[in-house]
Q: What sequence folds into this?
């Protein structure tokens, strides 16, 4: 079952969160990835408050502990900060060296799987360029 929920983070623009309850990927990871995607596409912007743990859990239909785990992970990874008054707030840590190391670490696994499945370097470059352009040039 695929759960699609929208939430407002204090403004009229809504974000679509898609959770696939039949996926092998953990729900907290899916939610983490959806929030990072929202930040990358500027759907969620610097300084914007995310819904409370309770509100997010109720909206999506998941356990509050799952949302709390997601928010904690996003904080540890430098995507959000926890503010006593506003809750979870988008605050991207722009430490370039740490970001490059993290991306390289994640790419190694993705590229290893691609090589095992016979995906060519040209195809990988084309995919990376296409996806990157979606995020960087999404402001249109």
A:
């Amino acid at each position: 079952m695929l759960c699609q929920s929208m939430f407002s983070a204090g403004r009229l623009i809504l974000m679509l969160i898609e959770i696939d309850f039949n996926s092998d990927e953990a729900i907290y990871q899916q939610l983490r990835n959806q929030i990072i995607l929202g930040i990358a596409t500027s759907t969620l912007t610097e300084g914007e408050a995310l819904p409370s743990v309770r509100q997010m859990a109720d909206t999506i239909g998941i356990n509050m502990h799952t949302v709390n785990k997601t928010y904690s992970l996003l904080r540890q990874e430098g995507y959000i900060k926890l503010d006593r008054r506003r809750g979870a707030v988008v605050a991207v840590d722009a430490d370039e060296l740490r970001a490059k190391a993290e991306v390289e670490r994640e790419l190694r696994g993705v590229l290893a799987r691609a090589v095992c499945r016979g995906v060519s370097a040209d195809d990988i470059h084309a995919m990376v360029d296409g996806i990157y352009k979606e995020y960087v040039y999404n402001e249109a």
